[in-house]
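REQUEST FORM: STRUCTURE PREDICTION
Request ID: SP-0412
Submitted by: Lab K.M.
Chain count: 1
Length (residues): 386
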Amino acid sequence: MSENSDLRSALPDGKAAYVLTNVAEVVERILTFIPTKSLLRISSVCRLWRNCARRVLRTQQQLAWVSANGPSPSEVHALCSILAVEVEKVFLLPKTVLAMVDSEAFSGQAYYRSSKAQKSRHSPSTVEEMNLLFPKGCDIMGIVTPGIVLTPTGSNSSPPKEYQEGEAGFAVMFPGTEGVNIKPFHFCKKTISPTALKEAGLVDNPDLRVVLLFIYEAYKCERARFLNQILDPLGKSKALIAGGVVESAFSPPRHCCSQGAYGVVGLALSGPKVQGASVLLDQDVSTPKDAETTIRRLKAAKIPEKNTLGFMFACVGRGQNYYNNQVNVEADAFHKVFPSIPLFGLFGNGEIGCDRIVKDDYTLCDTEMDSLQHEYTTVMTLVHLG
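STATUS: Completed
RESULT:
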């Protein structure tokens, strides 16, 4: 008996059974209302459903994210508490995930609640448990940082929030998109080399458009030379470079260096559909009006707002205290200028970036390599993924 015959026999209504096992247009329309994880499960029902599911998956190219803030009801971080539930509702097959959590609430806790001794969230089992939430082969970049900037789960137009204190985190999910290649990289002092940089697509890559990079354990005295090994070649490229100095990285796991060693993780975005722009809010930007004026300069780049993310990489010395006890100043300024673009990012111990525009066929940038590293600033960035 065929797959379709088996399905028809299990359905009480003969007409409905015929439609659901023979009319691809109807089945495909129904499947568009089903979240991706459920779609993958039901694609095994029959050959027609499998083919329809594949076509629907190819149309799911929009970015998605899960955000969390506030005290967790359990022993685990707030993001970890809701991630397993919210991922089931996503209409997207993630190819790459960028997750960030605050260092105060995350460090030293277990990923899942356990009555036994708590595991470190930096242990291999922590990463394995997170990997189970996403498709096989999905690259997960996990960052631990002093403060978080996020857009609440749901609408692109939800106002973003800055969390310099308290429990907060997010996971941005990128689909596999034609014309966009997102490649994660991870280097420590033992693994960085010109060959490794080339393999990661960071040098000798004419299609490189945007690099998001995060230095961890950067208080080590040797980190300046290490950082220059990456920033010097990137500073000479036509790519947009943005990121910050964070506490640590919990994914991908480290096999080359011991706990506490310094290194860098990040994402290299290449391809003709990738566009980017960034502006630097320097130390002179200290009022809400100045912040809005500076961020508004991103409008000149004319980056398409659909399928675009905003990233905010700010110094821990900015935020509420920098703006005379006014909260959420820079995130509010961004939302005022770009009300339909979600914003994510961090408060860290140093910022990386400059004024730069990367479009289809040209790059406008500050060519001084020393201008990439900053303190008491904010790098505000737009990244368009086609």
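NOTES: The first strand starts at residue 64 and ends at 69.
Reviewed by: T.R.
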